[in-house]
Amino acid sequence: MSKVLIVYATRMGETERIAQLIGEGVRISGVEAVVMDAGKIKNEGDLQGYDALVFGSSTYHGEMLNKMKTLLFLAEKAGLEGKVGGAFGAFGWSGEAPGRIYNTMANVFKMAMVGDPLMLKNASLGGGIQMAQEYGKSIAGKLKER
């Protein structure tokens, strides 16, 4: 069975909520999902054994959280080229973090990215729950295509 790692960095809990919903979408599709706080990833070996990786961070003052920046530096050494990837994040006024994560995964890590990054102000607003679950389903769908 394929396995997806969904890693988030959050300050207020909203990005974690989005990560959990993406995980639900992955599981609904019959694929195993592991959801984890970025602070629990200690080395590039912690990223091994997954067929897809999805990274997300909230945006504060135009930046992703430092825990996600640290994760991206670790991930650069993990040999993720060709693996399925996705990026997401919660934001208030601006939403740069998901796009920066996505571009790093696509252009530096050379991952096979799904669509565009998922950007939500709040998982509970404007269909956010369904959008996050659909994003998870698209990750699982891309894995099944391979």
TrEMBL record:
Domain Flavodoxin-like: 4-140
Gene Ontology MF, one: FMN binding
Top-level taxonomic group: Bacteria
InterPro entries noted in UniProt: Flavodoxin/NO_synth (IPR008254), Flavodoxin_CS (IPR001226), Flavodoxin_dom (IPR026816), Flavoprotein-like_sf (IPR029039)
Cofactor: FMN
One Pfam family this sequence matches: Flavodoxin_5
Protein name listed in UniProt: Flavodoxin domain containing protein
